[in-house]
Amino acid sequence: MRASERAYAALREDIIEWRLAPGTVLAEVEQSERLGVSRTPVREALGRLSAEGLTRAAGGRGVVVTDISLEDIDELFELRETLEGKAAALAAVRGERPVFEQLHAELLRAPEMLSDSDPSRHDYYALVGRLDEAIDAAISNSYLAQAMRALRVHLVRVRRLAADDAGRLQAAAAEHAAIAEAIAAGNPRLAEAATTVHLHRSLSHVKATHTPH
Amino acid sequence: MRASERAYAALREDIIEWRLAPGTVLAEVEQSERLGVSRTPVREALGRLSAEGLTRAAGGRGVVVTDISLEDIDELFELRETLEGKAAALAAVRGERPVFEQLHAELLRAPEMLSDSDPSRHDYYALVGRLDEAIDAAISNSYLAQAMRALRVHLVRVRRLAADDAGRLQAAAAEHAAIAEAIAAGNPRLAEAATTVHLHRSLSHVKATHTPH
DNA sequence: AACAGACTTAATGTATACACTGGGGCCAAA
DNA sequence: TTTGGCCCCAGTGTATACATTAAGTCTGTT
Hints:
The structure is a homodimer of 213-residue chains.
Chain A: H1 3-16, E1 25-26, H2 28-35, H3 39-52, E2 55-57, E3 63-65, H4 70-94, H5 97-108, H6 110-115, H7 122-139, H8 142-159, H9 166-184, H10 188-209
Antiparallel strand pairs in A: 1-3, 2-3
Helix pairs in contact in A: 1-3, 2-3, 4-7, 4-8, 4-9, 4-10, 5-7, 5-9, 9-10
The first copy, chain A, binds a DNA duplex (30 and 30 nucleotides) through residues 2-4, 27-29, 37-41, 43-44, 59-62.
């Protein structure tokens, strides 16, 4: 694997997992020593991260990890509602029915995944991720899909702010199931509405359980 | 100005203005000689361009200028309708009325700008650009604004494909005026509808006058 | 003649040396 | 003591040399 790719993945992971707190200055030499590569790949990685909005060039004095304020979360969800609502509607029109029927059935069984002792909820998040991928594929619009992928980076970061208790995750699974069901039924307005409902509930939960850093 | 910035601006301009045709291979050494800087800034510029989607890394053999197919144009306008529709609606709710009343009045006088002999339509495009900026500012959502800015790069490129005759530009000015009027009136649904109408007309015009390369 | 494999080479990927710039600290004067 | 200006330097910005990889070609075998 290329060194710049490793540096990018490592830094991105560190930021998303909040191991690098907002405001942290990422000096090129320092990071190159920490990651065991030269400045060039680190520089390229920092450029990509700044383009994504995870870091911010701080005029001559390195790049800093961007903060996520409460207003940012509101803005993020406003854009998310726009994009994912449209995506769900398009998937309902263009998607292949059996795929979403299958996902719907699996999402109805999601509570079983949350009862066991896996603390990282790996299976659950993998299933939700498969729904995202199925929608991405169904919309057959690479620009829209790319915009949503760019958003999801920030959303994973926000998710780490909230306490994902089993109760919320079960409710979220039911909401996801409703989205999959609407898409499988080929009903774009219902799919969009279900997405809107889900995102509003998610946002409320994040804001309610959010612990300021 | 930094060399990487100059290289980026120059390459971007060359691509948008179709001086660099789709499929053109941009070798780092070649471009560094042409632009009079070393490979490092050129490399950074190419990275930024690839992140924006104007170029595409072609696995080991340089980066190539991306093509714009008819499907791409459809996808582009689908996303554009989603984003700009939402933006217009938000601007109608959050924007400052006098700003858009002023823009509305100026847009109604746009035909005067198109009657003179300026072939590049500089004043006209500047006015339309001011409307875009006013909407960007009014929505007060940096993520949405950034997504729209990223889109506009591709749209300028598409615009160069179409024949911008005076008739179409006058009609477009009237459509823009309708959008500004709806925002000034504080009517989000009308603003969104006016945007939808404008974008559909634009797309029809592009597809009708598009000359394949 | 067609295909498989290694070689060639031209490009990218990486490391590092040098240039430049902006900020912080120190010193001096009021 | 405070403030203004200068100096120092840490860090980014650029150039270039070296390593690596992948596409294209050539040759040998089937």
